[in-house]
Write a structure and sequence with these properties.
It is built from 2 helices and no strands. By secondary structure, it is mostly helical. The chain starts with 16 loop residues before the first helix and ends in a 14-residue tail after the last helix.
Length: 64
């Protein structure tokens, strides 16, 4: 997905207060957006289901 959002789809998600607080804490700790964490978690689930590589939950190239 490019910065212009072409080729992307939007989805709305509802989290429990505890889930939201944890995503917020992690995003602030690592200097990444909450959206990045949700996208990465989705990627990991898809990789796991498809037997693909499991990459670390960090992005050294992320815009901070």
């Amino acid at each position: 997905m490019g910065k212009d959002g072409k080729g992307a789809c939007r989805v709305s998600v509802t989290f429990t207060r505890q889930q939201y607080a944890e995503i917020d804490r992690l995003s602030k700790k690592q200097g990444l957006s909450k959206s990045w964490f949700v996208r990465r978690a989705t990627e990991r689930l898809i990789e796991q289901e498809n037997g693909g590589p499991m990459l670390p939950l960090t992005d050294s190239h992320a815009v901070r």
